[in-house]
């Protein structure tokens, strides 16, 4: 049986420098997720700074977008998490300048782990990439 670490993280720290959602990070993605009680949603349009091959968004950027999305549903229900495991499926190339929609939800949860899923969709609803993740619930410093 795998023993999960007891990880204490300063969850009160200002998130303004987060690469995915930080407003003050000059090289960050500046994602703004909204929650409707079941689904977290954000929009993003990649530019030339996000490319790998000419005009094609780098797979690492796509994975980063999905990782951020996987963490938001637990966050919105009061469970700050770190990604423990994720699996990504890239279905088609994403082009620079193509408006994207990230959608994520919780599949199941227990006391220490939350399973989530996310998709990266084009404007017409075509799924360009998708991910599943296992999120490790962290405790804030000072929590019991």
Largest beta-sheet characterization: 6 strands, antiparallel
The Cα radius of gyration reads 16 Å
**Which regions are unreliable across 5 or more consecutive residues at pLDDT < 50?**
none
The CATH architecture: Roll
Spatial ordering of strands, largest sheet: 2-3-5-6-7-4
Number of strands: 8
Assembly of the depicted chains: single chain
The CATH fourth-level homologous superfamily? Hotdog Thioesterase
Element order, helices and strands?
EEEHEEEEE
Form type: globular
The CATH topology turns out to be Thiol Ester Dehydrase, Chain A
Strand content: 35-45%
Class of secondary structure makeup: mainly beta
Fraction of helical residues: 10-25%
Q: Helical segment tally?
A: 1
Number of domains: 1
Name of the top-level CATH class: Alpha Beta
Distance between the termini: 24 Å
Q: What is the arithmetic mean of pLDDT? A: 91
